[in-house]
Amino acid sequence: MDPWGLTAVAYLLSLLGAASGGPECLALAGLDLQRSQAISSVSPEGLAELFVDDAAAAPDLAALRQWSDRGMVLESAMLVVGSCTVAAGDAGQVVLEVVDRLAPTRAVDTFGGLTDLPQDDWSRRSVVLHHVDGRWRYAGGTLGG
Length: 145
Known about the structure:
The protein is an alpha+beta fold.
């Protein structure tokens, strides 16, 4: 299956895993899809706009830069949400407890060579989202992937 097909399947699975957690968990699945697209497109600007500030975006931007500096582009890099619950929150901020894993992802070098990344195990993470300008953004926690 092509990488965008894998991303689509991973996103659909994430929606299923996030659905029982409510709208904030569905928002996380949407953010994870946008994150995957920004990483696969090597778009630091697209990635940065998913975060509340530069400090929150720094780890993802550094990882993107490291792959790019090595002449590699990640295909897919989608996180599959297995479960998600709201641990705490109010109208402007929410803390989510998430179990997820990296979907099948591969690195492509400048010559078109493909390297499959190791299969990820399910892991638990806490994610803080802030509601800013009418949409949710990553604010902190362990982003996984």
